[in-house]
Amino acid sequence: xxxxxxxxxxFITAFSFAQSSEPESVKGTIIDDGTLLPIAGVNIININxxxxxxxxxxxxxxxxxxxxxxxxxxxxxxxxxxxRVTNDWVKFKTQTKIPLTQRAxxxxxxxxxxxxxxxxxxxxxxxNPVKENxxxxxxxxxxxxxxxxxxxxxxxxxxxxxxxxxxxxxxIFGRKSNxxxxxxxxxxxxxxxxxxxxxxxxxxxxxxxxxSKDEIVQLLERCNYSEDFINTANDxxxxxxxxxxxxxxxxxxxx
Length: 255
Known about the structure:
Blueprint: H1 2-21, E1 25-32, E2 43-46, E3 51-54, E4 60-64, E5 70-74, E6 81-84, H2 87-92, E7 95-100, H3 121-127, E8 135-137, E9 144-146, H4 154-163, H5 168-175, H6 177-188, H7 190-197, H8 203-209, H9 213-222, H10 227-232, H11 235-254
Parallel strand pairs: 1-7
Antiparallel strand pairs: 1-4, 2-3, 2-5, 5-6, 8-9
Helix pairs in contact: 4-11, 7-11
């Protein structure tokens, strides 16, 4: 009997320890707020922990999260949503239903003007100008993009931001150092990377970095990225570009 009691106590202790060592998580179901039907393939990213997941065919998901973490939920055709994780949600493991609202799009009139070539190169070159963009090679991506590393003014701008406390790069990289450190965590999570690779709206990226969309554009301009790259690159490529600029800034700031 004595051995049975000891064994039971050991079993309870081991079970309690196993439960306490498990990472906290939340469960939920993403539904359409109009039809109340589940939505598959929705991206859910924990902004605080930089962890991501995707809903299954029934709209269900499970994601590592702690109380007061913020989840960023996004899906093409729907308005993005931020949800704060509560203590009860984590404690009771409830399957919370989260509705998404469809986004209404208004298409504007587009006028396409074709170039009328004359056959004379000096004139046609002015009618159809060629933009002088610099090429930028991003690690892990097969295609090159315009960027600041080969630009003659890029290095000077990074140096000026280190020396000038009022500079935009200094304000973002220096004052938001914790957010910028998330760049490394973003690269480790395949779900986060895949979510960013399919987006072009800068919304999820802005939420992860704690900056506005306008600040992202200004930051890339200060890093000497071309307008073409800023307007056409997906969020993953933008993230890698910001990461490269930040790493250069840290090296210069340390030196």
